[in-house]
Amino acid sequence: MIRKAYDAKFCSQKLRMNNEMMVFQHTRKNVICHICGCKTSFFGPEGVSLREATCPVCGATQRASDVAGVIIHTFSKNDTLPLSKTSLSLVSKKIYESQSIGIIHECLKNLPDYHCSEYFDDVMPGGLNKNGILCQDLQKLTFSDNSFDLVITQDVFEHIQEPEKAFAEIHRVLKPGGYHIFTIPYHEGKKTLRRITIEDGKKVFNFSPVYHGDPLRQQGALVYTDFGEDFVTMLESESFVTDAFLCGQWYDSDEIPTILDETSYDTYLKYYNTNDLCRFFKYNSWVFRTQKSANRVKNNA
Fold first, then answer.
1. Does the residue 300 lie in any domain?
2. How far apart are the C-alpha atoms of 35 and 37, rounded to whole Å?
3. Does 297 fall in a domain?
4. DSSP code of residue 223
5. How many domains, in total, are found in the chain?
6. How far from chain centre, in Å, is Cα 55?
7. In this predicted model, which residue has the larger pLDDT, 152 or 220?
8. In the structure, what pLDDT confidence band is assigned to residue 15 with cuts at 50, 70 and 90?
9. Which of 136, 138, 245, 257 has the fewest CB atoms found within 10 Å of its own CB?
10. How far apart are CA 135 and CA 145, in angstroms?
11. Within 13 A of 184's CA, how many CA atoms are on the CB side?
12. Domain that holds residue 193
C-alpha cells in the first residue's frame, strides 16, 4: 500500500491518489509481469536499482511492466491480461510513444494508429533520420491539436530543457479525455531541483552536470531537472487530472540519490566512469497518469 506520509503530501498538492490500482506489489518476487503475463520474480545484478530488474521470461524491466500495468488498467476491461494480449483494447486508439525501441514499443508497434519517435540532435522535429525514424521535440511537437488518445513517455522529462513546455504540448495533442502515462526518476521527500535553467536561450548550470545512460548518445543524456514531490504544480496549469501509482517501493527517501555537493558528485562520477550508473540511481517505481479534461479543449492560439 502507499505510505500514508506520501498520501498526505500528495493530497495537499491536489494530486489524486488512485486506490484502485493496488494489484501491484512492492517486491520483485512472485509478481505478474504485465508485458508477458507470467507470474515470476524480477531479477538484476546485485546492487542494481530494483526498478530496472528484469523479467526472466520476456526481459521487461520492472518499470516497463508497471507502465504496461497502468495502460492495461486504463484501457482494458480485463486487468488480468498482459499488454501483449490486450491489443484489441487499443486497436481503435491513436497512440504516441516518445521512443522507438523498448518492450512496450514492441507490443504496440503493429497497432494501426501507433506512432513513435526519438529526439535527434541533427534532425529537425517532424523529419526522419537516415533510418526512417521520426524526430520529435516534446517541447514543440509537430502533431495537430487533439490528436491522441494516449501519449507514453518513459524517463524522458528529466532531460527536457523546459519540462513545462513539454507538458503543455502533450496537453495540446491529447484528445479531450486522453491520457499521458509516464515515468520520471522521482525524488521522494524532496523538492524539485532545477540542475540547469535556460536564460536568454543559454544553459545556466546551477549544479554540476549529471548524465543518465542513453543508447543514442555516448556521453549520456544530460539531466536538467530532478523531480520532487512538488512537480505536480507543473501539471496544474494545464488542468490535468493526475493519478499516481506506487507500483514498487524498495528505498527510503534518503537512499534516493541527490547530487548537490562535491562529495555526492564524486560518488556519482565513480559510477559514471565505470559505466555502472544503475547501481547509483536507485528509485522506487512510480507511474503517473494525467488526463486531459473531456469538457475542456484548451485554446492554444
1. no
2. 6
3. no
4. P
5. 1
6. 19
7. 152
8. very low
9. 257
10. 18
11. 23
12. 4-291
Q: Which amino acid is at 189?
A: G
Strands (E), 87-240: 95-97, 114-116, 148-154, 174-183, 186-187, 193-194, 196-199, 202-205, 211-212, 221-222, 225-228
Specify the CATH number for the domain of residue 164.
3.40.50
Q: How many residues does the chain have?
A: 301
φ and ψ at 203, to 5 degrees? -75, 130
Phi–psi pair at 81, nearest 5 degrees: -85, 140
Is 133 contained in some domain? Answer: yes
8 A C-beta contact, residue 103 and residue 62: no
Q: How confident is the model at residue 26 (pLDDT cuts 50, 70, 90)?
A: very low
The answer, yes or no, to whether residue 8 has pLDDT greater than 50, is: no
Residues sharing a CB contact under 8 Å with residue 271, sequence separation 6 or more, in sequence order? 277, 279, 280
Contact, 35 vs 82, CB < 8 A? yes
Q: What pLDDT, in 10s, does the model give residues 240-273? A: 788 999 999 999 999 999 999 999 999 999 999 9
C-alpha cell at 10: 500528495
| Cα–Cα dist 40/56, whole Å | 8
**Domain contains 119:** yes
List beta partners, residue 187: 228
Mean residue pLDDT of the chain comes to 86
Q: Per the confidence metrics, is the pTM higher than 0.85?
A: yes
